[in-house]
Amino acid sequence: MDDTSNYAGTFVTAGNGDLWLQFTSELLSGIGLNLGTGDDMGTGTSILNATGGLAKANFDTNLKADGGDALLSSSFQDNGVAGQLRGTFEITGDSVRVIPEPSSLALLGLGLIGFGLSVRRKAVK
User: Distance between alpha carbon 85 and the CA centroid of its chain, in Å?
Assistant: First the structure.
């Protein structure tokens, strides 16, 4: 999380903010086919554990396989250029805390105000 709006650099120089979320990887596995032939392809998976950062308490659920907090899945294939691969990865997980939307809070507040007014009205009569 960058505390200033002036960031212009690389991952290596990104050090002036607070860490938002950190995962460690457990049980990394994968398979690659036809590696080095120009027809490379493969997939991989890993169990991730939330280990640090401001949002750790929201993601440290232990609800995934083997008590993990999130799952990483990936795939890659040949890029058409010698020695280069392209691919995708996805991280899926659940957060512990449900944070209500502002409109839900406003609706609840209006309901409580209406309830309070109806109780007051009956007390006056």
Answer: 25
